[in-house]
Amino acid sequence: xxxxxxxxxxxxxxxxxxxxxxSPAMDTNQDKVVSKxxxxxxxNARFDAADANFDGRLNQEERRAMREQKRxxxxxxxxxxxxxxxxxxxxxxxxxxxxxxxxxxxxERRERMKARLDINKDGQVDAEERAAMRAKRKxxxxxxxxxxxxxxRLDADGDGLITRAEYMSHADAIFLRMDANGDGxxxxxxxxxxxxxxKRRR
Length: 202
Fold this sequence. Notes:
It is a single chain. By secondary structure, this protein is mainly alpha-helical. The chain is about 60% helix and about 5% strand. The protein has one domain. It contains 7 helices and 6 strands; from the N terminus they run βααβαβαβααβαβ. The protein has a two-stranded antiparallel ribbon with strand order 1-4. Strands 2-6 form a two-stranded antiparallel ribbon. A two-stranded antiparallel ribbon has the order 3-5. About 10% of the residues are buried. Residues about 1-25 and about 195-200 have low confidence and may be disordered.
């Protein structure tokens, strides 16, 4: 089965494509580092692109359009990764190659997980080691819940609308959370989890 690039784009709404085009890359000077100024500028640009009625606030419809834009961008990126020769089609061979790549990565993740579980490094994962891992995961989930409670709400006053001030305050909080080493800039991979774990999007 062949999927054309045009067919994929046809599934995207006009609003989504507009938002994609209007949202610039964060690393504007192409130095492979995203500064706080670049991050803030990109956040402002995303707000401007989403504020369809230019009233300085994002309503529910505009927020849905933003979410659709993100989904559309992810779909576009997935298609590009699958279309390895860049001809605008995903052939059966390319689909099989992508599936083989996913299977290989899944096997690698399983091996890494086994290595983490095997605390005493005897090549086996016993019940005690599994119990220790479950306890560790439980603690991590609890820490995550606590951290999420401390994060500022996007709609801070709960009125169903997001002002630019609320949006930018949330963006600042995201930058601080992603800036793991506190140097005021984001390098490649900083603030993101590796593939195979749920990752946070900028």
